[in-house]
UniProtKB/TrEMBL annotation:
It comes from the Bacteria. Residues 40-50 have a biased composition (Polar residues). The lineage of its organism: Bacteria, Pseudomonadati, Pseudomonadota, Gammaproteobacteria, Methylococcales. It comes from Methylovulum psychrotolerans. This is HEAT repeat domain-containing protein. Residues 18-62 are annotated as: Disordered. InterPro entries: Lipovitellin_superhlx_dom.
Amino acid sequence: MVSLGSRQAYQAISQFGANRATADKTQSGHPPRHKHASHLRQSAVDQAPSTELHISLPPANNPTALNDWQQLETALSRQERQQAPILAAQLAESLRQQPDPDVYLRISTHVLHPNEPLANKAILLDLLTDTATPEALNQLLDFADLELDPSLSVLVLQSIARIGDNRWGGQFHEELSPTLEAAWDNPMRNDVEFLAALAKAIASIGAPKGVAQLLQTVSTTNTSQDSEATRRAKQEGAFSAIPQIRNPAAAAALAKGLEQEPIGSAAFDASGRGLASINSPNATQILIDYAKDAPIESSQNLAAWVPQINDEDSLKQFAATPENAFKNPEVGAPIQHAADKYRDNIAATNPVIQHGAKLK
């Protein structure tokens, strides 16, 4: 849903350039992805008069955020490229503590204004990515609904893709996932680059439902009503994004895929790659337990997954797994190889082991 901030920013800028006869035309000729995007088209301001922007905006609800914004706005106007990112990080923290729609409106106004330097817009988009709250994410998705200049559109999609990488407060922000999941299911949002950005963000956040959604996309049981082109774009985006998963909370969803999807299928391989990419003891134990009774046909998959794991505790789990624990030795061979390599590395750095003690 297009936010009030983006709509107000657009309306303010459109009024600023209301004397243009071509204000409502798009440059690309393609329909917008969102049903409200026609009210927000960037092309309506692309040819605005080349003068300074003076728009009266409502007062902010968060005085701290407003003060931080005013400092950042001053730094941007002076093109203080080193100071601006520092002030943007300060504002991001204020917006995490207390979201302020009016500050978001001010950000939108600058991002959408044609006279704002692209470097300033990049800083503001990075600000939204670093804020990594539902409000900031919605603002980025609103921008993605617009007919933007190509260079700005690329920056917006990059910001969406990276929003899950920010783990402020030392945690994965799974509260962002429902919004991304809804956008993924929206049939109006169907261009390849946008879907790839969504998939990357969903995987980086790693919420169980979002990960299950990506797996379902590449599953042989996918019954989506999307067009063939959209389905293919989603499958490619999901398959490429799943190795970006790091959230241990996603392990259960990936384990389900490992057990239920046919060996050799894209969803089966994606499930194993996802577990390996988490690089945590719980996810690694799932792979070990699977390998113990796995059919020999899965040996090549294990050989590709296991070397991706380098977490110290996971390597200890490999070393603690007996050689005879596997029904098919070929399936367990990659795990035993990783265990042997781990023991050798420990022995090389431990004089006691070098002189005959055996690592268990």
